[in-house]
Structure of Hydroxysteroid dehydrogenase-like protein 2:
Amino acid sequence: MPEPLCCCRHSLGRWTCCWIKSDCTLDFLSAFQRETVTVYLLFEANGLNFGTHNMINTGKLAGRTLFITGASRGIGKEIALKAARDGANIVVAAKTAEPHPKLPGTIYSAAEEIEKAGGRAHPCIVDVRDEVQVRTAIQEAVAKFGGIDIVVNNASAISLTNTPNTDMKRYDLMHNINTRGTFLVSKECLPYLKKSNHAHILNISPPLSMLPKWFGPHVAYTMAKYGMSMCVLGMAEELKGDGIAVNALWPRTAILTAAIEMLTGAESAQWSRKPEIMADAAYAILSREPKQFTGQFFVDDEVLEAAGIKDLKQYACVPENADNLMVDFFVEAKGATAPTAAPAGAGASTPTTGSDNGKIPQLFQKIESLLSPEIVSKTQAVFQFNISGAEEGIWYLDLKNGTGSCGSGTPPTTPDSTLTMNSNNFFDMFSGKLKAAPAYMTGKLKISGDFQKALKLEKLMKALKSKL
Protein backbone atom coordinates (compact mmCIF):
# COMPACT_ATOMS: atom_id res chain seq x y z
CA MET A 1 0.00 0.00 0.00
CA PRO A 2 1.48 3.43 -0.87
CA GLU A 3 2.28 5.63 2.06
CA PRO A 4 -0.43 8.27 2.60
CA LEU A 5 0.50 11.93 2.59
CA CYS A 6 1.00 13.92 5.79
CA CYS A 7 0.75 10.90 8.04
CA CYS A 8 1.47 10.52 11.73
CA ARG A 9 3.02 7.38 13.13
CA HIS A 10 1.81 5.43 16.12
CA SER A 11 4.37 4.97 18.92
CA LEU A 12 4.75 1.36 17.75
CA GLY A 13 5.43 2.43 14.17
CA ARG A 14 1.95 1.70 12.77
CA TRP A 15 0.13 4.22 10.63
CA THR A 16 -2.59 5.80 12.72
CA CYS A 17 -3.95 8.67 10.69
CA CYS A 18 -3.49 11.00 7.79
CA TRP A 19 -5.11 14.02 6.22
CA ILE A 20 -6.51 13.58 2.72
CA LYS A 21 -8.16 16.35 0.74
CA SER A 22 -11.41 15.05 -0.69
CA ASP A 23 -13.90 16.69 -3.03
CA CYS A 24 -16.39 13.85 -2.91
CA THR A 25 -19.43 13.72 -0.68
CA LEU A 26 -19.25 10.73 1.67
CA ASP A 27 -22.80 9.44 1.48
CA PHE A 28 -22.22 6.59 3.92
CA LEU A 29 -21.68 9.03 6.81
CA SER A 30 -24.44 10.64 8.84
CA ALA A 31 -25.54 14.08 7.73
CA PHE A 32 -23.72 15.63 10.67
CA GLN A 33 -20.43 13.96 9.75
CA ARG A 34 -20.71 14.25 5.97
CA GLU A 35 -18.46 16.99 4.71
CA THR A 36 -16.75 17.77 1.39
CA VAL A 37 -13.68 18.96 3.26
CA THR A 38 -10.69 17.44 4.99
CA VAL A 39 -11.48 13.93 6.11
CA TYR A 40 -9.87 12.14 9.01
CA LEU A 41 -8.85 8.62 8.06
CA LEU A 42 -7.73 5.74 10.19
CA PHE A 43 -5.03 3.37 8.97
CA GLU A 44 -4.64 -0.04 10.56
CA ALA A 45 -1.79 -2.48 10.06
CA ASN A 46 -3.97 -4.82 8.04
CA GLY A 47 -5.09 -2.22 5.51
CA LEU A 48 -7.06 0.94 5.05
CA ASN A 49 -10.25 1.39 7.09
CA PHE A 50 -12.34 4.50 7.40
CA GLY A 51 -12.54 5.50 11.07
CA THR A 52 -16.16 6.14 12.00
CA HIS A 53 -15.59 4.76 15.48
CA ASN A 54 -15.04 8.18 17.07
CA MET A 55 -16.15 11.69 16.22
CA ILE A 56 -14.40 12.39 12.92
CA ASN A 57 -12.28 15.51 12.54
CA THR A 58 -13.70 17.39 9.58
CA GLY A 59 -11.26 20.30 9.52
CA LYS A 60 -13.90 22.85 10.51
CA LEU A 61 -11.69 24.25 13.26
CA ALA A 62 -8.61 24.59 11.05
CA GLY A 63 -7.05 28.00 11.63
CA ARG A 64 -9.51 28.86 14.40
CA THR A 65 -8.15 30.15 17.71
CA LEU A 66 -9.42 28.56 20.91
CA PHE A 67 -8.83 30.09 24.35
CA ILE A 68 -9.20 27.18 26.79
CA THR A 69 -8.94 27.60 30.56
CA GLY A 70 -7.68 24.69 32.63
CA ALA A 71 -6.12 23.17 29.51
CA SER A 72 -2.99 21.71 31.06
CA ARG A 73 -4.69 18.39 31.84
CA GLY A 74 -7.96 16.47 31.86
CA ILE A 75 -10.99 17.55 29.86
CA GLY A 76 -9.50 20.90 28.87
CA LYS A 77 -6.41 19.30 27.37
CA GLU A 78 -8.44 16.67 25.49
CA ILE A 79 -10.63 19.38 23.94
CA ALA A 80 -7.44 21.17 22.91
CA LEU A 81 -5.95 18.04 21.33
CA LYS A 82 -9.16 17.31 19.42
CA ALA A 83 -9.17 20.82 17.93
CA ALA A 84 -5.42 20.60 17.27
CA ARG A 85 -6.01 17.66 14.92
CA ASP A 86 -7.91 20.09 12.71
CA GLY A 87 -4.95 22.45 12.72
CA ALA A 88 -6.43 24.89 15.25
CA ASN A 89 -4.56 27.45 17.34
CA ILE A 90 -4.81 26.75 21.07
CA VAL A 91 -4.20 29.14 23.95
CA VAL A 92 -3.36 26.89 26.91
CA ALA A 93 -4.56 29.10 29.78
CA ALA A 94 -3.87 27.42 33.12
CA LYS A 95 -1.96 27.89 36.38
CA THR A 96 0.43 24.92 36.26
CA ALA A 97 3.79 26.08 34.93
CA GLU A 98 5.93 23.76 37.06
CA PRO A 99 5.31 20.00 37.46
CA HIS A 100 2.92 19.26 40.32
CA PRO A 101 3.84 16.44 42.72
CA LYS A 102 0.38 14.87 42.45
CA LEU A 103 -1.16 16.20 39.23
CA PRO A 104 0.05 15.41 35.70
CA GLY A 105 0.96 17.99 33.09
CA THR A 106 1.90 21.64 32.77
CA ILE A 107 0.94 24.33 30.28
CA TYR A 108 4.19 23.59 28.47
CA SER A 109 3.77 19.82 28.25
CA ALA A 110 0.20 20.35 27.03
CA ALA A 111 1.44 22.81 24.40
CA GLU A 112 3.99 20.27 23.21
CA GLU A 113 1.27 17.63 22.80
CA ILE A 114 -0.91 20.10 20.91
CA GLU A 115 1.90 20.90 18.48
CA LYS A 116 2.53 17.19 17.89
CA ALA A 117 -1.19 16.69 17.19
CA GLY A 118 -1.07 19.24 14.38
CA GLY A 119 -2.07 22.46 16.08
CA ARG A 120 -0.30 25.63 17.11
CA ALA A 121 -0.06 26.32 20.83
CA HIS A 122 0.56 29.29 23.06
CA PRO A 123 0.98 28.40 26.76
CA CYS A 124 -0.02 31.14 29.22
CA ILE A 125 0.16 31.18 33.00
CA VAL A 126 -3.39 32.17 33.88
CA ASP A 127 -5.24 32.20 37.17
CA VAL A 128 -8.77 33.05 36.06
CA ARG A 129 -9.25 35.00 39.30
CA ASP A 130 -6.56 37.46 38.20
CA GLU A 131 -7.84 40.11 35.80
CA VAL A 132 -4.35 41.19 34.75
CA GLN A 133 -3.27 37.64 33.89
CA VAL A 134 -6.47 37.04 31.92
CA ARG A 135 -6.13 40.27 29.92
CA THR A 136 -2.43 39.66 29.26
CA ALA A 137 -3.08 36.13 27.97
CA ILE A 138 -5.83 37.39 25.66
CA GLN A 139 -3.59 40.15 24.31
CA GLU A 140 -0.79 37.64 23.68
CA ALA A 141 -3.23 35.31 21.91
CA VAL A 142 -4.48 38.07 19.63
CA ALA A 143 -0.94 39.22 18.89
CA LYS A 144 0.17 35.70 17.97
CA PHE A 145 -2.91 34.30 16.24
CA GLY A 146 -4.74 37.43 15.07
CA GLY A 147 -7.91 37.00 17.12
CA ILE A 148 -10.03 34.65 19.21
CA ASP A 149 -12.85 32.55 17.77
CA ILE A 150 -13.75 30.16 20.58
CA VAL A 151 -13.66 30.30 24.38
CA VAL A 152 -13.90 27.13 26.46
CA ASN A 153 -14.45 27.87 30.16
CA ASN A 154 -13.20 24.65 31.70
CA ALA A 155 -11.29 25.80 34.81
CA SER A 156 -13.15 24.78 37.95
CA ALA A 157 -12.78 24.14 41.68
CA ILE A 158 -14.74 21.61 43.72
CA SER A 159 -15.43 20.94 47.40
CA LEU A 160 -18.20 18.48 48.23
CA THR A 161 -18.92 19.81 51.71
CA ASN A 162 -22.12 20.90 53.41
CA THR A 163 -22.62 24.36 54.90
CA PRO A 164 -20.96 23.85 58.33
CA ASN A 165 -17.95 22.17 56.73
CA THR A 166 -17.38 24.74 53.98
CA ASP A 167 -14.94 27.38 55.19
CA MET A 168 -15.24 30.75 53.50
CA LYS A 169 -11.80 30.46 51.90
CA ARG A 170 -12.99 27.36 50.03
CA TYR A 171 -16.34 29.01 49.25
CA ASP A 172 -14.58 32.04 47.76
CA LEU A 173 -12.19 29.83 45.78
CA MET A 174 -15.06 27.94 44.10
CA HIS A 175 -17.07 31.04 43.30
CA ASN A 176 -14.08 33.08 42.14
CA ILE A 177 -12.85 30.34 39.78
CA ASN A 178 -16.12 28.82 38.61
CA THR A 179 -18.54 31.73 38.33
CA ARG A 180 -16.41 34.86 38.39
CA GLY A 181 -13.61 33.33 36.31
CA THR A 182 -16.05 32.19 33.63
CA PHE A 183 -17.68 35.61 33.52
CA LEU A 184 -14.33 37.43 33.42
CA VAL A 185 -12.76 35.34 30.64
CA SER A 186 -15.92 35.54 28.53
CA LYS A 187 -16.20 39.30 29.09
CA GLU A 188 -12.59 40.04 28.16
CA CYS A 189 -12.77 37.88 25.01
CA LEU A 190 -15.97 39.50 23.74
CA PRO A 191 -14.38 42.26 21.61
CA TYR A 192 -12.54 39.59 19.60
CA LEU A 193 -15.41 37.10 19.48
CA LYS A 194 -17.58 39.80 17.94
CA LYS A 195 -15.10 40.07 15.07
CA SER A 196 -15.11 36.33 14.37
CA ASN A 197 -17.40 34.66 11.86
CA HIS A 198 -17.40 31.47 13.95
CA ALA A 199 -17.70 32.65 17.56
CA HIS A 200 -18.47 30.19 20.35
CA ILE A 201 -18.37 30.22 24.14
CA LEU A 202 -18.62 26.76 25.68
CA ASN A 203 -18.86 26.38 29.46
CA ILE A 204 -18.17 23.01 31.06
CA SER A 205 -21.12 23.30 33.40
CA PRO A 206 -24.32 21.39 34.17
CA PRO A 207 -27.94 21.74 33.11
CA LEU A 208 -29.88 23.92 35.54
CA SER A 209 -32.02 21.72 37.75
CA MET A 210 -33.69 22.99 40.91
CA LEU A 211 -34.07 19.57 42.54
CA PRO A 212 -33.09 19.88 46.23
CA LYS A 213 -30.91 16.76 46.01
CA TRP A 214 -28.36 18.69 43.94
CA PHE A 215 -28.11 21.39 46.62
CA GLY A 216 -28.42 19.69 50.00
CA PRO A 217 -25.11 17.79 50.20
CA HIS A 218 -22.88 20.56 48.74
CA VAL A 219 -24.81 23.80 48.30
CA ALA A 220 -21.69 25.99 47.91
CA TYR A 221 -20.31 23.88 45.05
CA THR A 222 -23.69 23.68 43.33
CA MET A 223 -24.10 27.45 43.50
CA ALA A 224 -20.65 27.92 41.95
CA LYS A 225 -21.26 25.48 39.08
CA TYR A 226 -24.76 26.80 38.45
CA GLY A 227 -23.22 30.27 38.25
CA MET A 228 -21.32 29.06 35.18
CA SER A 229 -24.57 27.73 33.73
CA MET A 230 -26.38 30.99 34.42
CA CYS A 231 -23.67 32.72 32.38
CA VAL A 232 -24.82 30.51 29.49
CA LEU A 233 -28.46 31.38 30.05
CA GLY A 234 -27.81 35.12 30.21
CA MET A 235 -25.04 35.54 27.66
CA ALA A 236 -26.78 33.42 25.03
CA GLU A 237 -29.71 35.82 25.14
CA GLU A 238 -27.51 38.90 25.38
CA LEU A 239 -25.14 37.97 22.55
CA LYS A 240 -27.43 36.28 20.03
CA GLY A 241 -27.59 39.49 18.02
CA ASP A 242 -23.81 39.37 17.71
CA GLY A 243 -23.82 35.86 16.28
CA ILE A 244 -21.96 34.41 19.28
CA ALA A 245 -23.09 30.96 20.39
CA VAL A 246 -23.03 30.37 24.15
CA ASN A 247 -23.65 26.79 25.27
CA ALA A 248 -22.91 24.39 28.13
CA LEU A 249 -21.60 20.83 28.08
CA TRP A 250 -21.67 18.34 30.96
CA PRO A 251 -20.76 14.65 31.23
CA ARG A 252 -23.35 11.95 31.87
CA THR A 253 -20.87 9.93 33.91
CA ALA A 254 -17.75 10.48 35.95
CA ILE A 255 -14.78 11.37 33.75
CA LEU A 256 -11.35 10.03 34.66
CA THR A 257 -9.50 13.20 35.64
CA ALA A 258 -7.21 14.13 38.52
CA ALA A 259 -10.21 15.63 40.34
CA ILE A 260 -12.30 12.46 40.19
CA GLU A 261 -9.31 10.35 41.26
CA MET A 262 -8.86 12.54 44.33
CA LEU A 263 -12.57 12.24 45.14
CA THR A 264 -13.12 8.55 44.50
CA GLY A 265 -9.71 6.93 44.84
CA ALA A 266 -7.37 4.84 42.75
CA GLU A 267 -10.11 2.56 41.41
CA SER A 268 -12.07 5.42 39.83
CA ALA A 269 -11.21 4.20 36.32
CA GLN A 270 -13.53 1.23 36.90
CA TRP A 271 -16.52 3.57 37.06
CA SER A 272 -15.51 6.35 34.67
CA ARG A 273 -15.32 7.33 31.03
CA LYS A 274 -12.25 8.80 29.36
CA PRO A 275 -12.00 12.58 28.80
CA GLU A 276 -12.14 11.89 25.06
CA ILE A 277 -15.94 11.65 25.21
CA MET A 278 -16.14 15.27 26.36
CA ALA A 279 -13.60 16.31 23.72
CA ASP A 280 -15.59 14.64 20.94
CA ALA A 281 -18.84 16.19 22.17
CA ALA A 282 -17.23 19.63 22.45
CA TYR A 283 -15.85 19.27 18.92
CA ALA A 284 -19.34 18.47 17.61
CA ILE A 285 -20.77 21.57 19.30
CA LEU A 286 -17.96 23.91 18.28
CA SER A 287 -18.18 22.78 14.65
CA ARG A 288 -21.77 23.98 14.36
CA GLU A 289 -22.99 27.27 12.92
CA PRO A 290 -23.04 29.64 15.95
CA LYS A 291 -25.91 31.86 14.82
CA GLN A 292 -28.31 28.91 14.81
CA PHE A 293 -26.99 27.01 17.78
CA THR A 294 -27.01 28.85 21.12
CA GLY A 295 -28.42 28.78 24.65
CA GLN A 296 -28.33 24.98 24.94
CA PHE A 297 -27.36 22.71 27.84
CA PHE A 298 -25.84 19.56 26.40
CA VAL A 299 -24.92 16.18 27.89
CA ASP A 300 -21.96 14.49 26.21
CA ASP A 301 -23.51 11.16 25.22
CA GLU A 302 -26.62 12.82 23.78
CA VAL A 303 -24.46 15.06 21.58
CA LEU A 304 -22.54 12.08 20.21
CA GLU A 305 -25.62 9.96 19.59
CA ALA A 306 -27.16 12.86 17.64
CA ALA A 307 -23.95 12.98 15.60
CA GLY A 308 -24.24 9.30 14.69
CA ILE A 309 -21.81 7.86 17.26
CA LYS A 310 -23.65 4.83 18.63
CA ASP A 311 -20.86 2.87 20.29
CA LEU A 312 -20.25 4.64 23.59
CA LYS A 313 -18.55 1.63 25.15
CA GLN A 314 -15.31 2.79 23.51
CA TYR A 315 -15.22 5.74 25.90
CA ALA A 316 -15.35 3.65 29.08
CA CYS A 317 -11.98 3.36 30.81
CA VAL A 318 -12.87 -0.29 31.39
CA PRO A 319 -15.15 -1.34 28.49
CA GLU A 320 -16.30 -4.46 30.35
CA ASN A 321 -17.78 -2.14 32.99
CA ALA A 322 -19.43 0.25 30.51
CA ASP A 323 -22.92 -0.49 31.84
CA ASN A 324 -21.97 0.15 35.47
CA LEU A 325 -20.57 3.69 35.44
CA MET A 326 -20.90 6.43 38.04
CA VAL A 327 -23.51 8.98 37.02
CA ASP A 328 -22.18 12.51 37.45
CA PHE A 329 -23.76 15.20 39.59
CA PHE A 330 -26.69 17.22 38.24
CA VAL A 331 -27.87 14.64 35.68
CA GLU A 332 -29.94 11.47 35.86
CA ALA A 333 -28.88 8.05 34.63
CA LYS A 334 -29.69 7.46 30.96
CA GLY A 335 -33.38 6.75 30.62
CA ALA A 336 -34.18 7.63 34.23
CA THR A 337 -37.00 9.97 35.13
CA ALA A 338 -36.11 12.81 37.45
CA PRO A 339 -37.86 12.33 40.81
CA THR A 340 -40.32 14.87 42.08
CA ALA A 341 -39.10 16.71 45.15
CA ALA A 342 -41.01 15.70 48.28
CA PRO A 343 -42.37 18.40 50.59
CA ALA A 344 -40.23 19.19 53.61
CA GLY A 345 -40.87 16.70 56.37
CA ALA A 346 -42.62 14.20 54.11
CA GLY A 347 -42.15 10.50 54.76
CA ALA A 348 -41.67 8.48 57.90
CA SER A 349 -39.00 9.58 60.35
CA THR A 350 -36.00 7.39 61.05
CA PRO A 351 -35.99 5.81 64.53
CA THR A 352 -33.40 7.34 66.86
CA THR A 353 -31.85 3.94 67.56
CA GLY A 354 -31.39 0.70 65.69
CA SER A 355 -33.12 -2.54 66.59
CA ASP A 356 -31.27 -5.15 68.65
CA ASN A 357 -32.54 -7.83 66.29
CA GLY A 358 -31.26 -8.53 62.79
CA LYS A 359 -27.95 -8.58 60.96
CA ILE A 360 -26.82 -5.01 61.67
CA PRO A 361 -26.33 -5.57 65.45
CA GLN A 362 -24.28 -8.68 64.67
CA LEU A 363 -22.18 -6.71 62.19
CA PHE A 364 -21.44 -3.95 64.69
CA GLN A 365 -20.54 -6.50 67.36
CA LYS A 366 -17.92 -7.90 64.97
CA ILE A 367 -16.67 -4.41 64.13
CA GLU A 368 -16.39 -3.54 67.83
CA SER A 369 -14.20 -6.59 68.46
CA LEU A 370 -11.78 -5.41 65.77
CA LEU A 371 -11.36 -1.79 66.88
CA SER A 372 -7.91 -0.71 68.00
CA PRO A 373 -5.93 2.45 68.80
CA GLU A 374 -4.12 1.98 65.47
CA ILE A 375 -7.38 2.11 63.48
CA VAL A 376 -8.50 5.16 65.47
CA SER A 377 -5.18 6.91 64.85
CA LYS A 378 -5.38 6.28 61.08
CA THR A 379 -9.04 7.27 60.67
CA GLN A 380 -9.76 10.14 63.10
CA ALA A 381 -13.43 10.43 62.24
CA VAL A 382 -16.87 9.79 63.74
CA PHE A 383 -19.53 8.30 61.46
CA GLN A 384 -23.30 8.18 61.83
CA PHE A 385 -25.38 5.77 59.73
CA ASN A 386 -29.04 6.56 59.04
CA ILE A 387 -30.43 3.26 57.80
CA SER A 388 -33.81 2.80 56.10
CA GLY A 389 -35.53 -0.35 54.87
CA ALA A 390 -35.79 -3.73 56.56
CA GLU A 391 -33.47 -2.81 59.46
CA GLU A 392 -34.30 0.85 59.88
CA GLY A 393 -32.43 2.78 62.54
CA ILE A 394 -29.45 4.93 63.49
CA TRP A 395 -26.00 3.55 64.26
CA TYR A 396 -22.60 5.09 64.86
CA LEU A 397 -18.91 4.28 64.56
CA ASP A 398 -16.49 6.42 66.58
CA LEU A 399 -12.97 6.14 65.21
CA LYS A 400 -11.69 9.38 66.71
CA ASN A 401 -11.83 8.95 70.48
CA GLY A 402 -10.07 6.50 72.79
CA THR A 403 -9.79 3.01 71.36
CA GLY A 404 -12.92 3.46 69.26
CA SER A 405 -16.54 2.51 69.83
CA CYS A 406 -19.72 1.72 67.91
CA GLY A 407 -23.35 0.95 68.58
CA SER A 408 -26.98 1.88 68.26
CA GLY A 409 -28.16 5.49 68.29
CA THR A 410 -26.39 8.78 67.64
CA PRO A 411 -22.67 9.06 68.43
CA PRO A 412 -21.55 10.57 71.75
CA THR A 413 -19.85 13.42 69.85
CA THR A 414 -20.81 15.31 66.69
CA PRO A 415 -20.31 13.07 63.63
CA ASP A 416 -17.81 14.14 61.00
CA SER A 417 -19.82 12.35 58.30
CA THR A 418 -23.39 11.09 58.20
CA LEU A 419 -24.16 8.35 55.70
CA THR A 420 -27.77 7.67 54.71
CA MET A 421 -28.71 4.51 52.81
CA ASN A 422 -31.02 1.50 52.91
CA SER A 423 -30.07 -1.62 54.81
CA ASN A 424 -29.34 -3.66 51.68
CA ASN A 425 -26.80 -1.12 50.44
CA PHE A 426 -25.35 -0.90 53.95
CA PHE A 427 -24.62 -4.64 53.98
CA ASP A 428 -23.23 -4.47 50.44
CA MET A 429 -20.83 -1.70 51.48
CA PHE A 430 -19.50 -3.57 54.48
CA SER A 431 -19.14 -6.78 52.47
CA GLY A 432 -17.17 -4.98 49.76
CA LYS A 433 -19.82 -5.39 47.05
CA LEU A 434 -20.61 -1.67 46.94
CA LYS A 435 -18.01 1.09 47.10
CA ALA A 436 -18.77 4.40 48.77
CA ALA A 437 -17.84 6.73 45.91
CA PRO A 438 -19.87 4.99 43.17
CA ALA A 439 -22.75 4.53 45.62
CA TYR A 440 -22.72 8.25 46.34
CA MET A 441 -22.60 9.30 42.70
CA THR A 442 -25.37 6.88 41.70
CA GLY A 443 -27.68 8.03 44.50
CA LYS A 444 -27.51 4.86 46.60
CA LEU A 445 -25.72 6.72 49.37
CA LYS A 446 -26.15 10.23 50.72
CA ILE A 447 -23.26 11.85 52.55
CA SER A 448 -23.49 14.95 54.69
CA GLY A 449 -20.51 16.42 56.46
CA ASP A 450 -16.91 15.72 55.54
CA PHE A 451 -16.88 13.88 52.20
CA GLN A 452 -13.20 12.96 52.35
CA LYS A 453 -13.58 11.37 55.78
CA ALA A 454 -16.55 9.40 54.50
CA LEU A 455 -14.30 7.96 51.81
CA LYS A 456 -11.82 6.92 54.52
CA LEU A 457 -14.50 4.54 55.69
CA GLU A 458 -14.13 2.63 52.41
CA LYS A 459 -10.47 1.96 53.16
CA LEU A 460 -11.41 0.78 56.63
CA MET A 461 -14.07 -1.57 55.29
CA LYS A 462 -11.56 -2.99 52.86
CA ALA A 463 -9.13 -3.67 55.72
CA LEU A 464 -11.82 -5.23 57.90
CA LYS A 465 -13.49 -7.24 55.12
CA SER A 466 -11.39 -10.36 55.63
CA LYS A 467 -12.03 -10.31 59.38
CA LEU A 468 -15.78 -9.68 59.39
Observations:
- The longest strand covers residues 381-388.
